Amino acid sequence: MTAALIIAAGQGRDRRQIEPDREVGALSAVKRCVLTFQAAGVARVVVVCGDREDGRTEKLVAHMNVTFLFSSDAGEMLDSVKLGLSFLQGKCGDVLIAHTDVPLFQVETVRALLEAGGGLCVPVCGGRGGHPIRLAAGYIPEILAYGGSGGLAGALRAAGLARTEVPVEDPGILTHIQDRDGCEALLSAQREPRLRPAFRFQLMRDQPFYGPGAHQLLQLTEETGALLDACRHMGISYSKGRKIIANLERQMGCPMLERTRGGKDGGASTVTPEGRALIRRYSAFCEEAETILTELFRQYFEP
């Protein structure tokens, strides 16, 4: 499984702070990145934000099944990359790494990176490499161990990774958000987005009770071992998370979590065998249903 890591905190070009809320066309930079990855079929998207108390970035991509990580200090962009890679280590096979200062890369570019072989894949347009890049998860420890001052590029060089260039006809991989004229020209030149289907599957009895949000909450609780941490990663309150789980348990007629009280931090939470079975069955159902419905969409809308 390939995950996407979007850096929305830290210092980018010329030591300026990354601007995830800068509007690019009709969308914020961070939302444009999330939508592009999801349109390319990347289900797991992680966004590294600034201080949690700010909350602006989470609001821009709320209800989009994004996992949020919070960087307490807005230092080098590499610090944010390391935070994201530490979280994703052991959870995926490859990581697509992008930052919101280069938000105009295309769906076709992401798909080309997904199909390419190699441990480090870089899209190239007009002889120049750009963003996002794809990194095999096996190289994450080497990036995390880097202590130099060369940023992500320096970490990749120090790791000695062979670079696989992926040719693309996509100047968006090179267009920086500070280049206002370049962004406007690129947006004007782009074709109208291709028509595509979007699916959201829910389980219900008298009303819906399990869909993408509850599914993500249960998955993150299993990974982190704490409902409180899962809520933080989703950008929702602990009380809301408890209500979601309580409703789920009521509708399913069995416990989804086993809880250990732990004071102000909410204690530990272990997903029950019934909860893990629900995660597996829902994931498999969604994957198969999307395949079938995508083919049906092609029959009706792509003659």
Structure write-up:
By secondary structure, the chain is an alpha/beta fold. Helix content is 42%, strand content 19%. It contains 11 helices and 14 strands. It has helices at 29-39, 56-60, 77-88, 107-115, 140-145, 151-159, 180-189, 212-224, 227-234, 238-252, 273-301; strands at residues 2-7, 23-24, 27-28, 44-49, 66-70, 94-99, 120-125, 128-129, 133-136, 163-167, 203-204, 208-210, 257-260, 268-271. Strands 1, 4, 5, 6, 7, 8, 9 and 10 form an 8-stranded mixed β-sheet that branches. It has a two-stranded antiparallel ribbon with strand order 2-3. A two-stranded antiparallel ribbon has the order 11-12. Strand 13 and strand 14 (268-271) form a beta hairpin. Helix 8 crosses helix 9, helix 8 crosses helix 11 and helix 9 crosses helix 10. The longest helix has 29 residues, at 273-301.
Short description:
The chain has helices at 29-39, 56-60, 77-88, 107-115, 140-145, 151-159, 180-189, 212-224, 227-234, 238-252, 273-301; strands at 2-7, 23-24, 27-28, 44-49, 66-70, 94-99, 120-125, 128-129, 133-136, 163-167, 203-204, 208-210, 257-260, 268-271. With 303 residues, it is α/β, with parallel strands linked by helices.
